[in-house]
Amino acid sequence: MNLAILQRDLQHFILTGAPGVHALVRADTAQSAARRIAVYSHGYYSRLLEVLGKDYIGLAALLGEDAFETLGRQYIAAYPSIHYNARWVGQELPKFMAGIAAYRELPHAVDMAKLDWAITLAFDAVDAAPIDEGYFSQILPERWSELVFKFHPALQVFAISSNVLDMKRADERGEPMPPAEVLPAPQHVAVWRRDLRVFYRALPEDERSAICVAQNGADFGTLCEGLSRQHAEDAVGMRAAELLRTWLHEQWLIGCGVGACATQPSPFNSTK
Amino acid sequence: MSVHTLGFGLGARVEHYDDLLATTSEVEWLEILSENYLVPGGKPRHYLTRLREQFPMVMHGVSLSIGSTDPLNTNYLCALRDLAQNVEPEWISDHLCWTGVEGINLHDLMPLPYTEEALTHVVARVKQVQDYLQRPILLENVSSYIDYRCSQMSEWEFLNAVAEQADCFILLDVNNVYVSSRNHGFDPARYIEAINPQRVKQLHIAGHDDQGDLIVDTHDASVANAVWSLLKLTYQHCGMVATMIERDANVPPLATLLSELGTAREIAHQVCR
Description:
The structure holds 2 protein chains of 2 kinds.
Chain A: H1 3-16, H2 30-55, H3 57-63, H4 65-78, H5 93-98, H6 101-104, H7 107-123, H8 133-137, E1 147-151, E2 156-162, H9 164-172, E3 182-194, E4 197-203, H10 205-215, H11 220-228, H12 233-249, E5 253-258
Antiparallel strand pairs in A: 1-5, 2-3, 3-4
Chain B: E1 8-11, H1 17-22, E2 29-33, H2 42-54, E3 57-60, H3 74-87, E4 92-95, H4 116-133, E5 137-140, H5 155-166, E6 169-173, H6 174-184, H7 188-194, E7 200-206, E8 209-210, E9 215-216, H8 225-238, E10 242-246, H9 254-272
Parallel strand pairs in B: 1-2, 1-10, 2-3, 3-4, 4-5, 5-6, 6-7, 7-10
Antiparallel strand pairs in B: 8-9
């Protein structure tokens, strides 16, 4: 039998459990052949479900074992693994859930999936060395407004519509999750990595918009202009300084500079 | 036996990272599962760097799919080559199997039919991979639960032929020989003794799940007595070969694996002194 046809047919048997594999493999009976192929079928689903369970810890806890397995099996059937690394098998799950009517009724479940996957991405995102406060102390005062910032690749910002952060924290502490609630307004969340550990927290609206502005390449002056629309004039400088200190502490910043080049040395005080 | 080998090693597992970094010479080298480190950064790459500073390493993959009729995955090969440049492993290995077709990855090690067509196909692809990686690779015999009606030769004949014709090496998994022998009713000693010892560069030993009518290669238990016996036979046939214990699930404390590694070392010393 042609190798390509054999592999195509066998894969079909493994994925679907369809009868007829006895024609391909040696076994005393059709039942025996089916039993042997079932080792591979079972292995395929159980292996991918295990990966999903590790990547979606919060979602698995929220849905419970049976519902999570049902969802996982539906997802794997709809999105067979196509990447060489099983680490990526779960990447479409939030999108898949958002497309299912039953889960549109459970926005906290979709939010939890988004949060879990963001944590997974932050865990092994590309490394980058954070800058510290000393970096800013070298900048000439007249050049501050021109500064642009470069953020750590692990930092992700996205919106949720439920109290999923409280639910996730409760689960991590081993406590029962609080009842799901829809928030009065969408809430933005930051997920990031600091010293190899992954963190998440809610973002105040002014911080969310400042990050958005800065990540799009706008300079510090523009960032402050944005803050001035949300704070009294005499509070803007203080708030901007507070945000920068927070971002440094959280290791979100990996560079800053003038214009398009975030590593350009020109803004620095040459005497330092 | 004076042939230089790496000695006795373990698989690098997350559960043992810190203990391995604190351990002394009982573990002579580490095998990493390549795919675990084909990620951009974070904890996996951090620990890889630290472990590599302390241990010789070999890279063991599960995604080459050398026997698939799909084209070779150049993205995977490129990532593997980049990782190898970073790790500078003693060698790179994968499995004599296929892992999927039509773009799907079953994430399993599917056995090949042992036919002339499959042999020609695999040999050509091994040569391509070796050209790309600029080094010979090792291929491991897999545990299997099926064999194909169309097979024309034994697994050991097929494995020897691939190694010879593609000029690659063999990672002989002694546990897999045992598992397949029970599942398919052949003599495992016959398999071991038929393998060309000149091509064997590494051995795996592991535990399995004996379900009576079928043995499943689970890597979640200690090495079975029958596998220890086969390991002895393997040393008698091949001489001293770099040996490691594969434990992927139900991972015990490092001390337990060191004890098993001690058993392997003892057997080797009895046979190869």
